[in-house]
Specification:
The structure holds 2 protein chains of 2 kinds. Chain A is about 35% helix and about 15% strand. By secondary structure, chain A is of the alpha+beta class. Chain A has 2 domains: about 80 residues, Ubiquitin-like (UB roll) (Roll); about 70 residues, [2Fe-2S]-binding domain (DNA polymerase, domain 1, Orthogonal Bundle). Chain A has a 5-stranded mixed sheet with strand order 2-1-5-3-4, sandwiched between helices. Chain A is globular, with a radius of gyration of 16 Å. Chain B is globular. Chain B is an alpha+beta fold. The longest helix of chain B is centred in the last third of the chain and has 28 residues. Chain B has a domain of about 160 residues: Aldehyde Oxidoreductase, domain 4 (2-Layer Sandwich). Chain B is built from 21 helices and 27 strands. Classes of the chains: A alpha+beta, B alpha+beta. Chain B: This is Oxidoreductase. Chain B: Pfam families: Ald_Xan_dh_C (PF01315), MoCoBD_1 (PF02738), MoCoBD_2 (PF20256). Chain B: One of its GO terms (molecular function) is oxidoreductase activity. Chain B: Keywords: Molybdenum, Oxidoreductase. Chain A: Pfam families: Fer2 (PF00111), Fer2_2 (PF01799).
Chain lengths: ~160, ~750
């Protein structure tokens, strides 16, 4: 079967790509568009390293077909920083050592951003449950939760 | 110049919490990991794996696969020679099976094709004729005389006559008279334990790109903990000279020991050589579980005697580990670590390794120690319960200290065990009230720490900055620590230094990022490389001033006359000396090469509060505190990060994680859904207390911190569960059904 032509909005820019019918959105992002910020940790939706936002919803891009992005709005970690400035979550993750190897970081940042857009003042437990779909093997999550809360406070004050 | 600063106290940069140099790359998606690297014309490599736990390979027919349009190469073990060196041969045989498949998931053949669809189709066209053989996956079964033989004649010279055919290694440590020691005890407890194999669980699967040129030179880009080891193993397997293979490490998405060997890299090189094109292999998560890692599983007996007032009189441990289908020496480290926390008159540990039809063990954070110390710390805790003694007081009473002859033979130098125990005893956590079905457990932990081969180069740039080139992949923030130590020594700000991790062509040998060695050994070499550069800068200043080199000292980032007699000259800063270096003798650099010793052992203590639901057997961790000696915490955030991350892995090991094999010898839970590592909602905040008892072997007193924290959670949680619901489990993981069964059996 022939490749499919897809028109989408990626991090605010109108973007077109072709992909195979069975190709995942993750593979299309990484392989066709060179957007390697989203990672494949499992390919089965268990680890959250491939998390992106699709029409305002968090999805594992390894469980979405590239073709399903037709007409959709996709946001990835590459779209979080604007110009020279980092998103408050990105800054908090650096300032408070919320990453070690960093492979889970893009997915966690995208997920945390959608949480704070819905709930600007979450409890620690709410943060922990919201991020329960994003595995991190390095940090024990402690500094991640703290960094999200610091960014949340920063954004509420801003 | 004189550098006797081993008790250095007055730090300006070391001990601060600066931003890591790779931070922005990693929060913006710019950092390139193993699977993110591509080269033009790259082919997709895929590996065919055994569906059998144990089988003879009668024939492999690759002709149909090769005939498929778009397939560029197919390789099997026949594409390689047979190395004489046993260790190298085992690594090679693990990468592609030779004669027999030894476990479910063992690699058999590989293809390179123009795309994934073609590569998948080609794998299905490879015909392998197998004759299934009897298999064994349990360590106790594997040690029996009539067990299925995994590999013939693999016992080394340590194995006593009459051992079972799968026993490959035996070891023994200890001192003193055990019988006399046990005779002095008021109570003796002996228990048997088992622990499941657990996987390192790094989120980034193994990935590499190999490009083998027609001239016999090759490049390999991969995610690894050690590019030099990858080069040596791959060159050995491919029959290449080391200088002709350049290995460049990517950013690494976690390793925990699991990326200290090769699985796919030699296969990609073999495919690339045959295809005449670059080849990329990225492992799937299923393959990562089936064919890489995990750590050993164990079966252990521990006997300890104690007096009524809590003095340990004797201890004995028998450890039986299986590390998969190839010989494995991990039990040595378990047998050495088991009683390391205690000052004992009589102690003896014995260890056996047995082959099973499981994947080849790879190092996992303090390999061999967590399970042995779990067994010892469980028995110590049970003695405390029986004798109604405070478990921290008992540890303090028996704690190893400077001058203690360790159970594994060495005499300890300055160590931090007593300080961590005292800190735990004083901490509010230890005195907080507990509710119904809640319990508090504790455990000591220990790791040896490694030094090893290290080569560092440090360039002073003409603009007054410094570039450090080192050869150890940064797995948790080490570039920050290395830059900090260089800045400290040179006397310039942290942001004037940048540290790079280089390929195998650019420095001398660097051992892998393992054994908690990097901040210690690379730090030590960086400090000495900086001192070498300082020596050059002082000589340049002496030349400008026309005085003797010995009359120049380095202070606060500048060369100064050593005293009034040396002459009256304004200090010259690093930037001033660097700016005119081309007129005073050329570029300025320092380097240092060492096989570092004096790593300094590491001790920690963990406190855990749990609540067990008596209806379901589920355990919730309510509160957790880690106490650990870091020697000197170079970057406290990342020291805490190691303590928290290790604790989380240990909690997963204690409660959930295990390799589950069915009767057919196939792995049943090869995915993150069924092999469940802790998620954010499973864990509480993990508090940390860093102690700093300087390591005499490092100029700043640094000790490695990475591995010790995975050790204590196993016993700390088992001890906490025991105190919460009055049942003591002797196996890990303590999954809810097992705890429920124990509660119900108690009635």
């Amino acid at each position: 079967m022939k490749n499919i032509h897809v028109s989408t909005v990626l991090n605010g820019d109108e973007t077109e790509f072709v992909c195979a019918p069975e190709e995942t959105l993750l593979d299309a992002l990484r392989g066709r568009l060179g957007m390697t910020g989203a990672k494949e940790g499992c390919g089965t939706g268990d680890c959250g390293a491939c998390t992106v936002e699709m029409d305002g919803r968090l999805v594992c891009s390894c469980l979405v077909l590239g073709a399903e992005a037709e007409g959709a709005e996709i946001k990835t970690v590459e779209g979080m920083a604007v110009g020279e400035g980092l998103h408050p979550l990105q800054q908090a993750f650096i300032d408070h050592a919320a990453l070690q190897c960093g492979i889970c970081t893009p997915g966690i940042l995208v997920a945390a951003k959608t949480l704070l857009e819905r709930n600007p003042d979450p409890t620690d437990t709410e943060v922990r449950y919201w991020l329960a779909g994003n595995l991190c093997r390095c940090t024990g999550y402690d500094k991640i939760i703290k960094a999200v809360q610091i960014a949340a406070a920063d954004m509420r004050g801003a | 110049m004189n550098f006797q600063s081993s008790s250095k106290q007055d730090f300006k940069v070391v001990g601060t919490r600066v931003a890591r140099p790779d931070g922005v790359d990693k929060v913006t998606g710019r950092a390139l990991y193993g699977a993110d690297f591509n080269v033009p014309g790259c082919q997709v490599g895929l590996i065919l794996r055994s569906p059998h736990a144990h089988a003879r390979i009668d024939n492999i027919d690759t002709s149909e696969a090769l005939a498929l349009p778009g397939v560029k190469a197919v390789v099997t073990s026949a594409d390689w020679g047979v190395p004489e060196d046993e260790g190298l041969r085992d690594v090679q045989d693990n990468c592609l099976a030779r004669g027999k498949v030894l476990y479910d998931g063992h690699a058999v053949a590989a293809v390179a094709a123009k795309d994934m669809v073609t590569a998948r189709a080609a794998l299905k066209l490879i015909r392998v004729d197998y004759t299934p053989l009897p298999h064994v996956t349990d360590v106790d079964e594997a040690m029996k005389p009539d067990a299925p033989v995994v590999q013939e004649a693999r016992a080394d010279e340590s194995v006593p006559e009459g051992s079972g055919p799968n026993v490959t290694h035996y070891c023994e440590f200890g001192h003193g008279d055990l019988d006399a020691g046990f005779a002095k005890a008021d109570t003796v407890i002996e228990r048997s334990f088992t622990t499941a194999a657990t996987h390192q669980g790094y989120i980034e699967p193994h990935a590499c790109v190999a490009s083998y040129g027609n001239d016999g030179k090759a490049d390999l880009w991969c995610t690894t903990q050690g590019q030099y080891l990858v080069r040596d193993l791959c060159a050995g397997i491919m029959g290449m000279e080391g200088s002709q293979l350049r290995v460049t490490p990517s950013e690494i998405g976690g390793g925990f020991g699991g990326k200290t060997t090769v699985f796919i890299e030699p296969v990609a090189l073999a495919l690339s050589r045959k295809a005449g094109r670059p080849v990329k292999i990225v492992m799937s998560r299923v393959d990562v579980f089936r064919a890489t890692g995990p750590t050993v599983s164990s079966s252990m007996d521990v006997r300890i005697g104690m007096t009524k007032d809590g003095r340990i009189t004797a201890g004995e441990a028998k450890l039986r580990y299986q590390g998969g289908a190839f010989p494995c020496g991990t039990v040595d480290m378990g047998a050495q670590a088991a009683f390391a926390a205690y000052d004992m008159e009589a102690v003896r540990t014995r260890g056996w390794n047995a082959l099973t039809n499981r994947p080849k063990e790879a190092a996992y954070r303090a390999p061999g120690a967590p399970m042995a110390i779990y067994a010892v710390e469980s028995v110590v805790d049970e003695l405390c319960q029986q004798l109604e003694l405070d478990p921290l007081d008992v540890r303090l009473k028996n704690a190893a200290d400077a001058g203690t002859k360790a159970s594994y033979g060495v005499t300890f130098d300055q160590i931090g065990l007593r300080a961590t125990l005292e800190a735990a005893k004083e901490h509010a956590h230890y005195h907080a009230p507990l509710g119904e079905n809640q319990g508090r457990g504790l455990s000591c932990g220990f790791w040896f720490n490694f030094g090893g081969n290290t080569s560092v180069s440090l360039a002073i740039n003409a603009d007054g900055t410094a570039s450090v080139t080192e050869g150890n992949p940064d797995i948790g923030g080490s570039r920050a620590s290395i830059s900090m130590m260089a800045a400290e020594e040179l006397g310039i700000p942290y942001d004037k230094v940048r540290t790079f991790i280089t390929d195998t062509g650019s420095l001398g040998q660097n051992d892998v990022t393992d054994g908690s060695r990097v901040t210690f050994a690379v730090g030590l070499a960086t400090i000495k490389a900086a001192r070498a550069a300082i020596q050059v800068m002082c000589a340049r200043a002496a030349k400008i001033w026309g005085i003797d080199e010995d009359a120049v000292i380095w202070e606060d980032g500048a060369a100064k006359p050593s005293g009034p007699n040396a002459g009256d000259f304004e200090p010259m800063t690093l930037a001033e000396i660097a700016a005119i270096s081309s007129e005073t003798g050329g570029p300025i650099a320092g380097h240092h090469e060492v096989n570092a010793e004096g790593a300094g052992v590491s001790f920690g203590v963990h406190l855990a509060d749990v609540e067990v639901d008596p209806e379901t057997g589920a355990t919730t961790v309510l509160r957790y505190t880690v106490f650990q000696d870091a020697g000197k915490a170079v970057h406290p955030d990342y020291v805490e990060g190691q303590m928290q991350g290790g604790a989380a892995q240990g909690i997963g090991w204690a409660l959930n994680e295990e390799y589950i094999y069915d009767e057919d010898g196939r792995l049943q839970n090869a995915g993150f859904l069924d092999y469940r590592i802790p998620v954010a909602s499973d864990l509480p905040a993990i508090d940390t207390v860093i102690l700093e008892i300087p390591n005499p072997g490092h100029p700043y007193g640094v000790r490695g911190v990475g591995e010790t924290p995975i050790v204590p959670p196993l016993a700390a949680l088992s001890n906490a569960v025991s105190r919460a619901v009055g049942v003591r489990l002797h196996e890990l993981p303590m999954s809810p059904p097992k705890i429920l069964k124990a509660i119900m059996a108690q009635g």
